[in-house]
Amino acid sequence: MRGLSRYALVGLVATAAHYALLICLVEWVAAPPGPAAFMGAVLGAGVAYLGNRRYTFSNTEMPHGQAAPRFAAIAGVGAVGNAAVVAGGVALGLHYLLAQVLATVVVMLATYHLNRVWTFGPRS
Fold first, then answer.
1. What's the confidence (pLDDT) of residue 1?
2. Of 57, 23, 60, 64, the residue nearest 40 (C-alpha)
3. Owning domain of residue 96
4. CA dihedral in degrees (84, 72, 54, 35; nearest 10)?
5. Fewest beta carbons within 10 Å, which of 28, 51, 53, 78?
6. Backbone torsions φ then ψ of 118, nearest 5 degrees
7. pTM
8. Apex 40 CA angle, 34 and 43, nearest 5
């Protein structure tokens, strides 16, 4: 449970960066919510890797050369899933921020498990 709470805390910081970019792009640049959510997720993924590597999974023996590409792959899948949930929610009539909150929860639970087992798990 400690790992999930640390993951959530790092995720909170990463999500703040994600949402800040999303809101700036949609509100100030008039970017469509789906692509803006994707770009926010990419920024958030960078923040999340650094935080999770140093805080959540600090006991990992997985070298950066293996962990970083694995994290990037999971973050990429997460970013695409995030954008799809946001775009789908908006298409169903949800406000883009409400759709983003839903996407955040779904993607966080999925990526925590994948990162715990594969990215920062035992060396392979």
1. 64
2. 23
3. 2-119
4. -40
5. 28
6. -105, -50
7. 0.72
8. 150
Q: State which amino acid sits at residue 109.
A: L
Residue type (1 letter), 46: G
CA angle at 56 for the pair 64 and 35, rounded to the nearest 5°: 75
**Which residue shows structure tokens 């990419």?**
42
- Which position has the token pair 């959530």? 8
- Helices then strands (H, E): number in the chain? 4, 0
pLDDT tens, per residue, the chain with 124 residues: 678 889 889 989 998 998 899 999 999 999 998 899 889 988 988 898 999 999 998 888 888 899 999 999 998 898 889 889 999 999 999 999 899 899 988 888 888 889 989 998 887 6
Beta strands in 3-122 (DSSP E): none
Asked if residue 61 is part of any domain, the answer here is yes
Answer whether residue 124 is part of any domain: no
How far is Cα of residue 83 from the mean position of the Cα atoms in its chain? 11
